[in-house]
Design a protein that fits this description.
alpha+beta, globular, about 160 residues, 4 helices
Length: about 160
């Protein structure tokens, strides 16, 4: 490798110290900054596994409930993301491993865990109420609405 290539590589790998490194967070006891970031209005992504194992990534609204160790995503029961989670539930591997993520500038946060689909009225109503609180609007009534509840076991990010 030439000297100029080595110098460029060295510059590429050196990071200014002002950028905080990504860090793990306690799902049940996040830092105030991390939790505040999850309370702000952001479009998020949800990644679910397709039956063939490839990732399916879609934009969603997410609510984070650290007291319960849950993230919630409301959806139509006929959506691909719901079908992916239901298909995974039916396998020997059990609930689907999923991730939700949001970002703004250099801030980002990811929550990971196992998802199940809930159809009962109480679970859906709670998820809709939490969505309305975070996003400042109540979704239109939808008889096909379900909630994906993600039991969290990992949180990371830089908020």
């Amino acid at each position: 490798m030439s000297m100029s290539a080595c110098a460029k590589l060295s510059l590429f790998h050196s990071r200014p110290q002002s950028y905080p490194r990504a860090m793990a967070h306690d799902v049940l006891n996040p830092t105030p900054e991390y939790l505040a970031f999850w309370r702000e209005r952001h479009v998020c992504t949800l990644t679910t596994p397709r039956p063939d194992g490839t990732p399916h990534v879609v934009p969603v609204g997410v609510t984070y409930d650290p007291e319960a160790g849950l993230a919630r995503v409301i959806s139509n029961k006929h959506s691909k993301k719901v079908r992916n989670v239901l298909a995974a539930q039916a396998t020997e591997h059990g609930p689907a491993r999923v991730a939700v993520c949001q970002m703004e500038g250099r801030r980002w946060a990811t929550l990971e865990g196992h998802a199940v689909v809930r159809t009962d009225e109480a679970s859906v109503a709670e998820a809709v109420a939490r969505y309305a609180e975070r996003y400042g609007r109540t979704p239109s009534p939808n008889p096909d609405r379900v909630v994906m509840e993600i039991t969290l076991d990992r949180a990371m990010g830089r908020a």
